[in-house]
Amino acid sequence: MYIKEAHPVEGPRPSKRVEINQPKTFEERKEVAAKCVKELGLTMPVLIDDMKNTVATAYGAMPDRLFVVSPDAKIAFTGARGPKGFSVPALSLALATSAK
């Protein structure tokens, strides 16, 4: 999911690797997300949060967090806030379990 830009150029902690302005419209957010997909070579679907950041707020996605959504559209796994809270073994187990 592409949410509010965490390190925009005009923010207090801009990224040192890429220069991205904070999108001001949903169309701009879509363009930034599409550029990320292309440049990172992503092959999975990428959802884009609305400009009110509804999903990020509801799920506490900042700074980042991993979720697994099961085939029946239920949240099968909620990881701790990352990056320090990431647990590869827990995520792997959730992926294996939800795929059944």
How does this structure look, described?
The chain is mainly alpha-helical and 100 residues long. The chain has helices at 26-40, 54-59, 88-98, and strands at 67-69, 75-78. Strands 1-2 form a two-stranded antiparallel sheet. The chain starts with 25 loop residues before the first helix and ends with a helix. The model has no long low-confidence stretch (mean pLDDT 85).
Question: What is the element layout, followed by pairings?
Answer:
Blueprint: H1 26-40, H2 54-59, E1 67-69, E2 75-78, H3 88-98
Antiparallel strand pairs: 1-2
Overview features:
100 residues; mainly alpha; two-stranded antiparallel sheet
Main sheet: strand order: 1-2
Stretches where pLDDT falls below 50 for ≥5 residues?
Answer: none
| Rg, Å, rounded | 15 Å
Question: How much of the polypeptide forms β-strand, as a percent range?
Answer: 5-15%
| Helix-strand pattern | HHEEH
Helical region count?
3
User: Percent range for helical residues?
Assistant: 25-40%
Question: How does the major sheet shape up?
Answer: 2 strands, antiparallel
SSE-based structural type: mainly alpha
Query: Span from first to last CA?
Result: 24 Å
Per DSSP E runs of 2 or more residues, the count of β-strands stands at 2
**pLDDT average, as an integer?**
85
Shape: globular
